[in-house]
Amino acid sequence: MFALNNYLIFWLDWPSMITFLGDLGILPGAAPKQPLDGTATILGALQTLSYLLCILGAAIYTKRTPEKPLRHDSQTMVGIAAYIIRASFWAVIFVGLADMVISFLRVEDLLPAIFGDDLATALGRSQFRGAYVHIPLVLAGCVTAAFTRSLGFTWLALLVVAAELSIVLSRFIFSYEQAFQGDLVRFWYGALFLFASAYTLYEDGHVRVDVLYAGLTSRMKGLVNIWGSLLLGMSLCVTVLAIGMWGKTSIINSPLLSFEVSQSGFGMYVKYLMAGFLGIFAISMMIQFASYILESLADYREEPGKREIAEASAH
Q: Does residue 223 lie within any of the structural domains?
């Protein structure tokens, strides 16, 4: 809901919950310079209500489904995080391939011959390419993710290797190298690193410096995982979202709002999306940590159905 309201505030100019509460006098320090008009007041009230509905909805769901085990709700959250990651994976594949082709045609001055002068000029502007090429492909990735169940990290890793290999071959065999080739490697590698984090947490594949944990009982391991997820994991996600999305000049919002690109000239126009990777990382990890807390609480309560982690995954 925070991410959704971030879009409403900075892209659609909604007032925000804090501004609404400041206008009411509840948060005097956040009061706007000019009182909100009728429409803005309604929009601010809707934003405030959206947060309250999230809390109330979770409480009502918990109250009405006492028979559902914690592990069931944990798996539901795993499924939500997995969909976000799958959608992001397909989006970076589609956007990466399409932008690479456009960048190649542009650097070789082939765009006017194929698309005409006007469209070729428009494709040279990040705002146009982002709005009319990237965003539709991101939506296509979300649709594709609804019909697939594979996260595809192996394939993304293979594509990173293939992209890097193409640079080596073109540089040393054909003496040809362009900025977009390196941009594609960084784009896909950044996605692989950040998107795989939640899945790796689920499989307990992150490196764990273990001094005491291995010797603890199942109940104590559950307790350690609960407090570790709350104090270390979720706090990091909150920090990334708060610092990255608090204002227009924040490190995530600013590149997204301006469709920021690198200074390499004829490189790929995906730098702003890489800033968005941080938001995807924080949201997917936040959901995964919530799932981890419920699963660890079930372990602490010694509920049946404990999930066994494959030895190959754990470190």
A: yes
Per-residue pLDDT tens for 154-211? 888 888 899 899 899 888 888 888 888 888 999 999 998 888 888 788 777 766 666 7
Per-residue pLDDT reduced to its tens digit, 14-72? 999 999 999 888 888 888 888 888 899 999 999 999 999 999 999 999 999 988 889 99
In a domain, 251, yes or no: yes
Same domain flag for 86 and 222: yes
Q: How far apart are CA 184 and CA 230, in angstroms?
A: 35
Provide the domain limits for residue 34. 1-67
Q: Would you say residue 111 lies in a domain?
A: yes
- The reply to whether 59 and 157 lie within a common domain is no
Residue 80 lies in a domain: yes
pLDDT tier, 98 (very low <50, low <70, confident <90, very high otherwise): very high
Domain count, the chain: 2
Q: What's this model's pTM, rounded to 2 decimal places?
A: 0.86
- What is the four-CA torsion angle of 150, 97, 270, 165, rounded to 10 degrees? 90
Question: Tokens 């410096």, residue?
Answer: 209
